[in-house]
């Protein structure tokens, strides 16, 4: 490793926003202490910079990544996106590369691949790895700092910082009840029979058979690119490839006349990308209320009864004191809990959580698991929780694994015992 280059891990103390740290690094705020930063051409790879590139790709026809990889960034899986975007950024020959939660939603093989690749860049670049989960510490980077209260201090990665307070949800408050009895929910919410999906000559899913029944709590997992998101979009109604497949949703054959709106009424959905680019000064309560209208942020007038239900959910998650605070000023953990309340406020029969604990620190991830367990075990909503790893503390009742192969991924039901 070169003595001329600086390589840092920066662990975020619990539940802080990384924005002030990124801004401070870009503004060279710490250059008095770390003078090498002052002269640098810095590039960042973060969920936000990747999503901004996707916007440029779609709105402004930026085809730099399409030319390089033959596929647009927006249609890639998260592992493929990171690979393609890293290549793109490295081609710009930055002096310093800041990785913001880069390893977070990568599977074991992808982590090894990227760690080797980044290690091979250490001669050329200053590397800064910002992370929240202890697993995401990069051991080949020589120095480690803790970012807390706007300062960086030397940190020993073998000892975690003190647990931070107010992230718990109210354990004593019962889960809110649906206000009116909706239409009878069938026993089988989702049924896939021999579902096979490919894009041009690329096979993605092969002969998937999967039944999700009322009251179950599923963990859907598989390595990067195995087709988890593709499978979910068959349910959420966003993927035209679902038509012509043998898929039943809520007892009805998909494509037999139901509108996307009707399906969305029955599905609560959260994925981390939903809020990265949300900038409006709306309150936490407005964000929860927007779940009634399937918008992210409130653009309609909510009724009194809807406000009452939103408040009940805020109380349940223990955040009623933040109801009038701007959503974007809240910690990542609080934002996530609010988004889960948003997904639940209309009491959908099915809740889909796609990588809900990504970007959280270990403590916040455990609290998120506790919240999801309570919704699964005390409520009437069926849950599909999607991730690479089973989060500590999460207690699903069933698990479905996608196993990649040359002809697409196969799906198997695994026993949890
Ligand atoms: N519109 C599309 N055109 C071409 N390929 C696509 C398209 N949509 C998805 N794919 C491909 O399908 C494969 C599965 O992607 P998907 O996002 O479903 O995987 P995943 O399991 O969710 O991955 P990750 O965990 O990394 O997000 C990837 O190889 C992806 O490039």
From TrEMBL:
<dbReference type="InterPro" id="IPR003439">
    <property type="entry name" value="ABC_transporter-like_ATP-bd"/>
</dbReference>
<keyword id="KW-0813">Transport</keyword>
<dbReference type="InterPro" id="IPR003593">
    <property type="entry name" value="AAA+_ATPase"/>
</dbReference>
<dbReference type="Pfam" id="PF00005">
    <property type="entry name" value="ABC_tran"/>
</dbReference>
<dbReference type="InterPro" id="IPR050095">
    <property type="entry name" value="ECF_ABC_transporter_ATP-bd"/>
</dbReference>
<keyword id="KW-0547">Nucleotide-binding</keyword>
<keyword id="KW-0067">ATP-binding</keyword>
<dbReference type="GO" id="GO:0005524">
    <property type="term" value="F:ATP binding"/>
</dbReference>
<protein>
    <submittedName>
        <fullName>ATP-binding cassette domain-containing protein</fullName>
    </submittedName>
</protein>
<feature type="domain" description="ABC transporter">
    <location>
        <begin position="190"/>
        <end position="416"/>
    </location>
</feature>
<dbReference type="InterPro" id="IPR027417">
    <property type="entry name" value="P-loop_NTPase"/>
</dbReference>
